[in-house]
Amino acid sequence: AGAAAQARRRTPLIVGAAIAVVAVVAGLVVANAAGQRLPNDAITGSIDASSGDRLAQARQLIADGQAVQAVKLYDRVLKDDPRQVEALAYRGWLVRLAGLPEDGLVYIDRAIAVDPAYLDARFFKAMILWKDRKDPAGAVPEFRAFLAANPPADRAAPVAAALKQAEAEAAGGAP
């Protein structure tokens, strides 16, 4: 009985820590996407300004908490370029955050098909598999793919912690 009581006391701490990791990583992913050269953008100034502008506007809308407006902008980008990886990944993530993880995963999988090295899509897929589908074993390869791409340390550390927890859960450990 003592061990069971101790385990019940630890469970809220573990769940709280997992939620904190998810929140930090999601924040870092959104923050990192702002102000970077976008996938499929040219290195020089020859990018399509309207698509790049819409993506920048969508990022700002996300930062301002206006997810529905951001999704609408991503839809406009995808109408012009159905393979735009950032729009696919972030549209999928926002749909997941709206409570539709399976619908979101469709877009995230499309982003991965376009660019398997796009880190945000790998992270988003891992989180959906782990937290929404309760499939930590399925999330592990996605977390590993994220880390194998040598992301910046501020993004790698929380994802490594999430990977460790998902591996423990997949091996039968406590969540």
What does this protein look like?
It is built from eight helices and no strands. With 175 residues, the protein is mostly helical. α7 (136-148) packs antiparallel against α8 (153-170).
Question: What is shown here, in short?
Answer:
With 175 residues, this protein is an all-alpha fold. It is built from eight helices and no strands. 76% of the residues lie in helices and 0% in strands.
Largest sheet features? none
The helix content, as a percent range, equals: over 70%
Structural class: mainly alpha
Cα Rg: 17 Å
Summarize the helices and strands and which ones pair or pack.
Blueprint: H1 2-33, H2 49-63, H3 67-80, H4 85-97, H5 101-114, H6 119-132, H7 136-148, H8 153-170
Keywords, separated by commas or semicolons:
single chain, 175 residues, 0% strand, mainly alpha
